[in-house]
Amino acid sequence: AMDPQQRLLLETSWQALEDAGMDPDQLKGSPTGVYAGVSSSEYRRLIAARGGDDSFFGTSGSVAVGRVAFALGLEGPAVTFDLNCASSVVAVHQASAALQRGEVDLALAGGVNAVLFQPVAKFLTEIGMLSASGQCWAFDASADGYVRSEGCGIVVLKRLSEAEADGDRIWGVVRGSAVNQSGAGLGLTLPNGPAQQRVMEEALARAGVEPTDVDYVEGHGTGT
Description:
Blueprint: H1 4-19, E1 32-37, H2 42-49, H3 56-59, H4 61-72, E2 78-81, H5 87-101, E3 106-113, H6 118-126, E4 151-157, H7 160-165, H8 193-207
Parallel strand pairs: 1-2, 1-3
Antiparallel strand pairs: 3-4
Helix pairs in contact: 1-4
């Protein structure tokens, strides 16, 4: 049995390459990397709850990216990231870094999440993580939790100079990115304000951008 998350990664990776104006068949044997956030497999729990056999190859996060590389014949790194809410954005960060190091010439990066097993929602409700109001209220004092969602997103990353030279369709440019950890804060799952400030400052510095140059911010706030 194949986790729907693996199927979504396959389909979305192909669609992303088509959107970029690239022929997936031309990438066979190339040093193209696959970097994806796959935090968990609720499908594995669903199979077990129904008395079925656990399929390692069908539900493993590491196999999910390996399956994309196998299907497309890609020979660069294939790496899965399990970092909860940060999984996908860290996948993009690491893919960008691999391009900068010359480790890959092209990268597929993103993530997937499928909500399939109801007991997970029950558990999250019991520990106070899900919003009783059904809204995230991000960055608001009235926040009482977050709302679960599902989907899959993949971006095709390439060094800008090469993308311009090849006449590729360019939707955006990653000017800079940064990743850190809260360290010894107030709690294992609690945010650390100063650490969050530092990682934003580092990303801006790497991008060569001043805070006053930023006109639009798309942020992630779980409300927890």
